[in-house]
């Protein structure tokens, strides 16, 4: 590593190993940039020092040496071995672009400078409400074969129950099909007349970033398959328990949907079918994911009802009209929807 020569050098640009790979294929297409200030100490008390506020600017701009751009964030030998393993699989599948290392994508530059609304002095924060399924556990940081990062981890279990059924069984005749809160699917019938009834679970969460400007691209969804890799005792961190297994995150792609705009013209009719069928490299192969207006309003209304039963005040800006029976659910845990007209006098 080298330090910047501030008298001669102003800007330093470096491509990561993945960027060099894309450049070699002619597929490097930068789309956005971010700014980082993780190498700046704004308040000297966090470095066991003291200074007047007026001295901070000169210390940061003139008296602080800066390292040149770091573009490698993982072991080269380990990465080459990983690429070789990927190439063996990719050659058979016809895939030519390797996966970007998770270390570079998420952990190397994990805290870009963001923005916040000018109408509040509060820092941006996440407001996450579970409208279906239950939060089982959570921690405020992420640890692993990388630098510990302050990214909350929320654990949720989504369970599917499978039942063997016959025509006329109780689970079907008890009004299951008429209850919109229950999601289920049926298999084809077997030779003995039985079939599988799958009671489906689903995760419905409301994610909102507060104290910042609300835009269409505030949230991004990324889905990974977790693969555990055993390094045979090669991992040892002083002060921590020695481990041999590390989680490897394999990114899953999303199927590209037909574009409603062609040659800068909005099409009258847009095909609804995806452009290709999903395989095991796509998230759509495993999950059905819906966001915003794609979620049925009835599911959102039942989620709001669940939150209010728990005393959680759901956000008022869903822009949907829920049935009257859902509007009557009180927010106050000690409130009641029972009126004087609902009370009957008991006979002696």
Tell me about this structure.
A hairpin with a 2-residue loop joins strand 12 (261-262) and strand 13. Residues 329-334 have low confidence and may be disordered. The strands form 6 sheets. Strands 6-8-7 form a 3-stranded antiparallel β-sheet, with no helix packed on it. The chain has a two-stranded antiparallel ribbon with strand order 1-9. A two-stranded antiparallel ribbon has the order 2-5. Among the domains are: 17-108, no CATH class; 289-348, no CATH class. The protein has 348 residues and is an alpha+beta fold. It is built from 7 helices and 13 strands. The protein is extended.
Strand content: 15-25%
Overall average pLDDT: 76
Main pleated-sheet profile: 3 strands, antiparallel
- What value does the Rg take, in angstroms? 27 Å
Q: Which class best fits the helix and strand makeup? A: alpha+beta
- Spatial gap, N to C terminus: 91 Å
Helical residues, percent: 10-25%
Give the uncertain stretches in residue-range form.
329-334
Instruction: Record the strand order, biggest sheet.
Output: 6-8-7
- The coarse silhouette is extended
Total beta strands: 13
The helix/strand series, from N terminus to C terminus, equals HHHHEEEEEEHEEEEEEEHH
Helical run tally? 7
Observed structural traits:
three-stranded antiparallel sheet, 7 helices, 348 residues, alpha+beta, extended, 21% strand
Task: Map the helices and strands.
Layout: H1 17-24, H2 53-61, H3 76-93, H4 102-108, E1 125-132, E2 135-139, E3 142-144, E4 146-149, E5 153-156, E6 161-165, H5 170-173, E7 183-186, E8 195-200, E9 204-210, E10 223-235, E11 243-252, E12 261-262, E13 265-266, H6 297-309, H7 324-327
Antiparallel strand pairs: 1-9, 2-5, 3-4, 6-8, 7-8, 10-11, 12-13
């Amino acid at each position: 590593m080298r330090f910047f020569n501030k008298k001669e050098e102003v800007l330093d640009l470096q491509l990561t190993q993945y960027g060099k790979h894309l450049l070699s294929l002619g597929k490097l297409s930068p789309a956005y940039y971010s700014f980082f200030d993780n190498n700046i100490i704004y308040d000297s008390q966090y470095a066991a020092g003291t200074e007047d506020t007026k001295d901070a600017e000169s210390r940061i701009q003139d008296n602080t040496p800066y390292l040149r751009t770091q573009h490698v964030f993982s072991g080269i030998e380990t990465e080459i071995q990983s690429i070789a393993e990927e190439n063996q699989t990719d050659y058979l599948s016809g895939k030519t672009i390797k996966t970007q290392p998770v270390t570079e994508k998420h952990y190397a530059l994990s805290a870009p400078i963001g923005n916040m609304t000018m109408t509040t002095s509060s820092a941006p924060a996440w407001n996450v409400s579970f409208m279906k399924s239950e939060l089982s556990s959570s921690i405020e940081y992420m640890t692993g074969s990388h630098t510990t990062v302050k990214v909350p981890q929320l654990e949720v279990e989504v369970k599917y129950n499978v039942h063997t059924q016959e025509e006329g069984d109780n689970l079907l005749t008890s009004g299951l099909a008429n209850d919109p809160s229950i999601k289920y699917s049926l298999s084809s019938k077997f030779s003995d007349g039985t079939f599988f009834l799958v009671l489906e679970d689903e995760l419905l969460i409301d994610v909102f970033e507060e104290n910042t400007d609300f835009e269409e691209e505030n949230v991004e969804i990324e889905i990974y398959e977790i693969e555990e890799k055993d390094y045979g005792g090669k991992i040892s961190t002083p002060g921590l328990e020695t481990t041999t297994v590390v989680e490897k995150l394999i990114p899953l792609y999303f199927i590209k949907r037909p574009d409603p705009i062609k040659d800068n013209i909005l099409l009258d009719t847009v095909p609804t079918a995806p452009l290709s069928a999903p395989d095991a490299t796509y998230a759509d192969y495993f999950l059905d994911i819906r966001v915003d207006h794609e979620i049925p309003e009835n599911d959102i209304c039942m989620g709001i009802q669940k939150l209010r039963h728990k005393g959680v005040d759901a956000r008022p800006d869903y822009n949907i009209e829920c049935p009257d029976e859902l509007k009557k659910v009180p927010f106050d845990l000690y409130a009641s929807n029972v009126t004087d007209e609902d009370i009957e006098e008991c006979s002696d």
